[in-house]
Design brief:
By secondary structure, the chain is an alpha+beta fold. The protein is 47% helix and 12% strand. Strands 1-2-5-4-3 form a 5-stranded mixed sheet, sandwiched between helices. The protein is globular. It binds cytidine-5'-triphosphate and magnesium ion. The site of cytidine-5'-triphosphate has 17 residues, from helix 3, helix 5 and helix 7.
Length: 336
């Protein structure tokens, strides 16, 4: 028994060290930012050769929101320069196909358009000095630019990068557990960051405010939704946070292992609880997008996947908690 316990402990210690090492080493670097800038220029040059109209490309997602790693993909929007973009899905698909042809002609690798998804995209890859960067171009979706800014604001709330590390760690953990890929029926990285923000807002001593309720509230309409959030309040001092990244991670696991998924909706836009009945939502996992309030980020989760995700939360919590109790290892190795 003792030998099995020791082996088990060693494996978990190794896993934890490994995850901690990855997060530390994968944090998006200045060199990576330069490479992404280079990729953007290459994309612009390629598309300019094919499309006559004036256009622009904007990066969003993890390269911009503070939760990015050197291995994250590169999410880019295409839009026509005069902002008078075409909303018909036929035109969007045609534009995506034109971009696909432009990237093929410019010898990007693994170029492939996916026009059957809710948002049509062109996938691509390109070699850079540090290896290969994968990315995708989608048609302009202004809401995603706003939610990227919202996440960035939350991410920079902590002066010592606690939140950025925790977010990267959770994305890594979810991908390792095979529950962090929306294209395979689980949850997107974006959804995990929403879960994280929700959890930090609801700690007995909240570590994050509810930015959409703060400040001089006014309505800013984008695509029919209110994208207001407070970004002019001074940053608070982080010194009140006495919890380490690993302790927060454990509490995160516990919070969602015990979450009332049957009745409640996970959301980050209001302090008050929100029920499925209020939303009229019936899915097993309800995670509300902060701006597009009709968008449930958990709508694609099957009962089987739901059970699998829950098992990952419960089992990981047991494993990491046992480890913490037994060795006091988590605190010493992963403290921010
Ligand atoms: N997004 C969205 N709605 C979704 C999924 C994603 O609006 N249901 C937008 C968000 O702006 C998000 C971006 O797409 O920031 C990228 O999503 P995703 O790839 O899931 O997250 P990343 O932060 O880019 O994570 P990763 O490092 O895994 O690429
Ligand atoms: Mg991404």
């Amino acid at each position: 028994d003792r030998i099995i316990c020791m082996l088990f402990g060693t494996c978990q210690t190794f896993l934890l060290e490994w995850l901690s090492f990855l997060v530390e080493n994968e944090k998006i670097s200045n060199a990576r930012h330069k490479e992404l800038h280079f990729v953007k220029t290459r994309l612009q040059d390629a598309i300019r050769k094919k499309l006559k109209n004036d256009f622009r490309l904007d990066a969003f997602g993890s390269s911009e929101n503070g939760f990015g790693s050197n291995k994250s993909d590169y999410d880019v929007f295409f839009r026509y320069g005069n902002d008078n973009y075409e909303r018909s899905s036929e035109m969007q698909i045609q534009t995506i196909i034109n971009i696909e042809q432009a990237l093929r002609a410019a010898r990007f690798s693994r170029v492939m358009s996916i026009t059957t998804a809710k948002v049509p995209i062109v996938k691509f890859a390109i070699r850079v000095e540090s290896g290969e960067i994968e990315g995708d171009i989608s048609y302009y979706n202004e809401l995603a630019l706003h939610n990227t800014q919202l996440l960035k604001r939350y991410c920079s709330w902590t002066k010592d990068e606690t939140l950025s590390k925790l977010g990267m760690f959770i994305k890594k953990w979810a991908k390792n557990c095979e529950i962090g890929d929306a294209s395979k029926g689980s949850l997107s990285s974006y959804a995990y960051i929403i879960l994280l923000i929700h959890f930090l807002q609801r700690l007995p001593d909240p570590l994050l405010p509810v930015l959409q309720e703060m400040g001089e509230k006014r309505t800013i309409q984008v695509d029919g939704w209110d994208v207001y959030f407070c970004d002019d309040e001074p940053m608070p001092s982080w010194s009140q946070c006495t919890l380490s990244v690993s302790e927060l991670f454990l509490q995160f696991l516990e919070y969602f292992a015990k979450f009332d998924w049957q009745n409640q909706v996970v959301q980050i836009r209001q302090t008050n609880k929100l029920t499925k009945i209020e939303k009229g939502w019936k899915k097993l996992m309800c995670i509300e997008d902060p701006f597009d309030l009709d968008h449930n980020l958990g709508s694609g989760i099957s009962p089987r996947m739901f059970a699998f995700i829950m098992k990952s939360f419960v089992t990981s919590r047991e494993v990491f908690f046992t480890l913490k109790e037994r060795e006091g290892f988590v605190r010493s190795n992963m403290a921010a």
